[in-house]
Amino acid sequence: MKTTIEPxxxxxxxxxxxxxALFIPITLIINGLAIPLGWLDAPAYENVLQLARHPLAxxxxxxxxxxxxxxxxxxxxxxxxxxxxxxxxxxxxxVICYGGATVGTIxxxxxxxxx
Amino acid sequence: MAxxxxxxxxAVVAGGEMVTLEVFRxxxxxxxxxxxxxxxxxxxxxxxxxxxxxxxxxxxxGTLSFRxxxxxGVCGSCGMMVNGDATLTCATFVESLLPxxxxxxxxxxxxxxxxxIIEMNDFMEKLESVKPWIIRDxxxxxEDGAYLQTPAQLADFKQFSMCINCLxxxxxxxxxxxxxSFTGPAVIALAQRYNLDSRDQGAGERNAILNxxxxxxxxxxxxxxxxxxxxxxxxxxxxxxYKVSSTLQWYQKLLMPWSGK
Amino acid sequence: MSANPQHTPYHPRWYRASMPIFWWMRRWIHARFILRELTxxxxxxxxxxxxxxLRALGLGPEAYARFLDLLRSPLSISLHxxxxxxxxxxxxxxxxxxxxxxxxxxxxxxxxxxxIAGLNFxxxxxxxxxxxxxxxxx
Lengths: 115, 261, 138
Ligand code: SF4
Ligand code: FES
Hints:
heterotrimer, A: 79% helix, B: Ubiquitin-like (UB roll), six-stranded mixed beta sheet, binds iron/sulfur cluster
């Protein structure tokens, strides 16, 4: 039987979509809006660093960021494919999307290890 | 497209309200591009769109072609686009579409043979390709009796067995429109109907067709198939659940290559 | 079905409409679908911003302070505002579609779709509250 790699991409897409749906809105509200607008006091630098360095926090941050990238890669690939009917560029689109997410994942791993 | 008018003169209810039906006409021997033709039809409280079409055929223009049979939502042959929505015309009341005009067209995403009649062989061939019947490794002999099934086992697939092959889900699916090679909602739902049947052992054979780029992995869960389905088959759910189980199998094979299937 | 059938008197010409490039602009339900798919850009976009914030955190207090300044710019605030709408739309559509993929069963009965989606929303709210508490308690 012809095997397909789609289940793999789809599982990353699904995991990323779930993590993003649960965690990104509140993270964005706190870091991108509430603190910059002064609605909430920014926690001290030392405390943020200490929290982010916790192994659990590192794991969580890595998964959230990396899987969000793969979530985008998979969805956006099909949006280009169907939405703009770029079927003939299928391979190129796939390489750019999943490749981009992989670069982002490496960057996230590097950043979090050196935190 | 041009709209040429043909006002009705027969069977007008005295003093009754009229509504305009703009009906898709395609007569291959006469025109290469379809036109919409307008008909004035009386409004009756209990008329569905199919009644209005039959009124046209009987009293205004006998050349109009369309399919129908049961008039009660079970045969699945009267599906058309009504004001852009894929629907059974025998289950859509004219009254709910007033004041009109009501635009009636053939199901989208299929080639049109004539007027409101589509060519559905593509669907029939896909349906056959997934072997929608019970497959056994070894058939029991008659003396061994029937295959028993509990109500809970029946409940696993019952919903998917309600499909009437009306093709509304295909007309509503933009992925099928873009990619006619896509196996499509009803066929996948009907394959699941057998895959999930406790008496069936053919899931592996069907998997070869469904667990592919033209099968379930073409679907992007637009979800419209489940919205338009008149029988609550929920083909979108059939496809999503198939994706889940295929993904689990994929990982199982990756982690334990020695495990069967 | 062969893609190019022969047209004969017994097999007349079919009419086949093709999908326009911007097919999803013709109908609101399709536009809504494309909007749902485009939320992924904002999901990944924010993940990238968050990653940059973590990088600034790793570079030291000055770099971090500079980054927080950047977040205060009107451009950043407006981009975050727009992104928020999209990531929330992502969450809502995601949770509402979850019952399509999950067929949970208690005893003989299917757990109704509304219950599954409802549980998702409850989880969303509680996780948001917990995460806010962990981030801000320091
Ligand atoms: S799944 Fe529903 S919409 Fe599709 S063909 Fe069957 S009954 Fe019709
Ligand atoms: S005529 Fe049979 S379903 Fe409408």
